[in-house]
Amino acid sequence: MPAHVGRAAWASLSLLVLTLLAVAVGTDHPSPPPEQPPGPPPADAPHGWVVAASAANVRREHSVDGAVLGLARCGEPAEIVDTWISPLGTRWSRIVVGPSGLTGWVLRSLLSHPAPPGRAPTCPTPPPPDA
């Protein structure tokens, strides 16, 4: 009978050690960084932006999967009213497009500051249509 008690004690001790190791290993992984919540642009952010791409999809959410609400064309003025940075570092801006009043999210890389007075904005030329 004492041999069985010893085996049971060793089995319990082994199980306890394995459980403690599993808990310790599970806590070694750092938690992913929290998403940066949307917020107003910094106070020192320059005002007066324009669409710098030939066109920019204005989306409902800050995601390429978000529904497209409309299109902002190159050179149209846009005011940034909110910003969001994804966990991967992609910067999105919530904009209000000049005269149309269209409001939604666009990739920040599609915006730039307007050209100085007297210089025409440089808009990329669309590729020629396939023949």
Keywords for this entry:
single chain, 131 residues, alpha+beta, 5-stranded antiparallel beta sheet, two-stranded antiparallel ribbon, 1 helix, 7 strands
Structure characterization notes:
This protein has 131 residues and is of the alpha+beta class. Helix content is 19%, strand content 28%. It has one helix and seven strands; from the N terminus they run H-E-E-E-E-E-E-E. The strands form two sheets. Strands 6-5-4-1-7 form a five-stranded antiparallel beta sheet, with no helix packed on it. A two-stranded antiparallel ribbon has the order 2-3. Strand 5 and strand 6 (103-107) form a beta hairpin. The protein is rod-shaped and about 95 Å long. The mean pLDDT is 77.
Distance between the termini: 90 Å
Give the SSE string.
HEEEEEEE
Strand order of the largest sheet: 6-5-4-1-7
Number of separate strands: 7
Q: What is the overall shape?
A: rod-shaped
Count of helix runs: 1
Rg value: 28 Å
Short description:
The protein has 131 residues and is α+β, with helices and mostly antiparallel strands. Helix content is 19%, strand content 28%.
How do the helices and strands line up, and which of them pair or pack?
Layout: H1 2-26, E1 49-51, E2 55-59, E3 68-73, E4 77-85, E5 91-97, E6 103-107, E7 111-112
Antiparallel strand pairs: 1-4, 1-7, 2-3, 4-5, 5-6
